Amino acid sequence: MTSPVSMTVNGKAVTATVEPRTLLVQYLREHLGLTGTHVGCDTSQCGACVVHLDGKSIKSCTILAVQAAGGTVTTIEGLAKGSELHPMQAAFREHHGLQCGFCTPGMVMSAVDLAQRKSDLSEHEVREWLEGNICRCTGYHNIVKAIQAGAAAMGSAKA
Amino acid sequence: MYNFEYHEPSSLADALSAIGSAEDGKLMAGGMTLIPTLKQRLAQPSDIVDLAKIAELKGIKREGNSVVIGAMTRHGEVATSDVVKSAIPALADLAGNIGDPQVRNRGTIGGSICNNDPAADYPSAVVALGATVITNKRRIAGEDFFTGMFETALEPGEVVTAVSFPAPEKAAYMKFRNPASRYAIVGVFVAKTSGGVRVAVTGAGACVFRQNEMEAALEKSFTPDAIKGIEVSADGLNADIHAGADYRAHLIGVMAKRAIAACG
Ligand SMILES: Cc1cc2nc3c(=O)[nH]c(=O)nc-3n(C[C@H](O)[C@H](O)[C@H](O)COP(=O)(O)OP(=O)(O)OC[C@H]3O[C@@H](n4cnc5c(N)ncnc54)[C@H](O)[C@@H]3O)c2cc1C
Ligand code: FES
Ligand code: FES
Known about the structure:
The structure holds two protein chains of two kinds. By secondary structure, chain A is an alpha+beta fold. Chain A is built from six helices and five strands.
């Protein structure tokens, strides 16, 4: 019961033959080899798997690949331009927004969705937004600082 | 996850025929409850009929004094809709506090009410605002729709197409959130409508219910003080690792007072 499923991932048209039960995160990691997107839980709660589908952040562990067929997906691998980090990635590095790094791909993708909506963010707004992203290491403090700085940098890059 | 056949119809008619001819078919909306259930192998449908490509199930419109929300409208769209924010700000606020941003980008109002989780937020709004649930077959009064824990008045193969909410004079929703999942440990939706005051409680019982004693008191005086003396009984309320029945009974009073105060 497999069938070809096509979508655009990080700007490239891709196709992989999968079962209907294949999750988008499995499609990305196992079929396309994009292992930057992580799986941290089995309960749709941790946010390590966050990617963008048609511009919005979603949990790729809680959507089937067939549901995303025809859509446009961006993963953490799609943010940097060559060796130049995306402003949000650069802000995470600058502000020490990670320790082990396991949650980081989801944190960054979630943060970019927020920053696309608003660039001048209060600490409270960032913390509310991170409801669906869990970090076991950092205590969030530097993640919040990084996101505020990354959003400001994205805002001024646009202006 | 067990395997299944996947269907993605583009019209309601095609969805009905796909679900009708499936051996043990299941509708899928946002998948935010269904996919975790499948991942845990708690269900084994033969077929999944995805409603996401059906245009007639989407969107928000104003019809007279009501706001009609298509079943496949995502929580995030309700939270940010100008129509909802101007007519029923309490409903936009409720939608904006469901789960987390990624859940709100996928989960739908139809999926939430059809699932009828005892701790879900939307059922309280449907009951308190006196909304009507519209299906492919009939119109069901909100209060008659929720029949028990994870149970609704829907018949097999019946599909919710929209929910129609009459705009109230005033309304507010307050929830005491589970600190991990953000589901309601207790949520109280208070609405002052042309048909009277309605107080709907979610999270506390097997399914959403009205608090008649508070409604009667609020008819006389719509102030937090009006319900001060009401003792909520813990009989039949939920008790679990998150909160005992006594605590939930207490929270009903606290959340109701906060909601009335928020109505202004
Ligand atoms: C981490 C997390 C946190 C959450 N927190 C909250 C919270 O704070 N508050 C809250 O209320 N909810 C919460 N939820 C649940 C969320 O709101 C879901 O979106 C919702 O319960 C189900 O909606 P869905 O669109 O994803 O439906 P699905 O999961 O796709 O479907 C749910 C059920 O409804 C049936 N169904 C769907 N649409 C229809 C239709 N149109 N007609 C007939 N049957 C239909 C399906 O067959 C299925 O049985 C949370 C979920 C997660 C994963
Ligand atoms: S892996 Fe997707 S939310 Fe945890
Ligand atoms: S840095 Fe280790 S989980 Fe967040």
